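The aim of this short unit is practical: by the end, you should be able to scan a pair of folded records and say something sensible about each. We start with the first protein, listed as its amino acid sequence and then its structure tokens.
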Amino acid sequence: MRALAWLGAAMALLLLGAWGGYELAKTQADAKASRQHKADLATYQRQVAEGNERAESLREQLNLQGRYVATLHERTQHAAPLAIVRPAKAPVRTAAQAAPACPGVQHQGAAAIATDEATAELAGGADLVVLSLAAVSLWNSALAGHDVSAGACAADDPASPACAAGAGIGLGQLWANHQLNAASCAADRARHAALIDHLHRTRP
């Protein structure tokens, strides 16, 4: 009987130890899971805050762009004539007479209209209708999203007498530049669409 009592006590101690070990392991697992949950929650909250910050920054940029578009529209209403009709026999500079070209403003890989007088005069060729410096400034400013002057024509004052001067840029060159800019914008839209599609496909 005493042996059975000892055996029973040993079994009870064994079961008690097993239960205590299970409870300890469960407590440790719960604590680890709680710490992981808190870490995951902190990461999520940080990412949400960063996303909100980026979204707010983008909204502000879009608002600024919208206001600038309105500003350009207002300037266009009061600008000097945007096109100039040249005399039919206006002298055209040759390549030998032209001064070295200065690079124009670049926007997303598409060349903006040159504002160097000699280069513009040469590029305009024998076109009778050419852009004014006001038109060049407004065009390049719209592309860049900020003020871009054209020669003596200040971007913030396209109605000044200096802006009424011809830039020597014909409609052919204007159309060619538009095609470059349109192609650049189309490529950007395709890249953005592909990126958005990739993010949607890879989202958990």
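Turning to the second protein, read its sequence before its tokens, just as you did above.
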Amino acid sequence: MPNSSIPSTSAEATEMINGFLGNLKVLISSPAKGAKEIVEHGNFIISAVLMAAQAVLAGILSLIFTAFHLDMGLGDCIKYFILSIFFSLLLTGITFACAMITGICMKGTNDAKKLLNALSLRCIAVLPFTIIAVPISFLFSEFALLLFFICEILGLFYEYFGFKAAFGLDEGKTAYLSVIVSIIYIIAFSIILRLTASDLLQTILFSAFSSSLY
């Protein structure tokens, strides 16, 4: 099925999902090869769904922390749930724009759908850890935070191979691109926390640290 196709029948949808699962198995056993398959032959619809799912799970984690660990009111819980989803999608958009501009400046291939597939590789790495972190966060908030940081590192690892396949760059240029994108991501993430959620993050980290002492 072409990368840009939208399934119109259940058979096509099944084929699309089976193709993704096959590429996922390759990604686990051989990250470089699997990333290339997903970027070049994956479906952008699945990529968009993965990003949306990651944003929603981030919102759920935020909701759990605010409701069960920080004892915030319903209004504040809903606010941080919505903000978490919005900023997760915003950071994805910033990463997409930064990677596209940097890749073009480095004379790489200009293909938005391939880049979208490349960014979904981070979600593939992050989602399983986030799913595990959701039930764990009810009891062990500090361990849930640890899982979050671990999966982010793995996500950067997969994303490197995704960028290499999306832009057709050599290893050196891909490394530079990955570093630039990561720096922009960290800066954007820091600014967002500074402007909107720094107090919440500080409270979460303090709560997690305090509970680990007992």
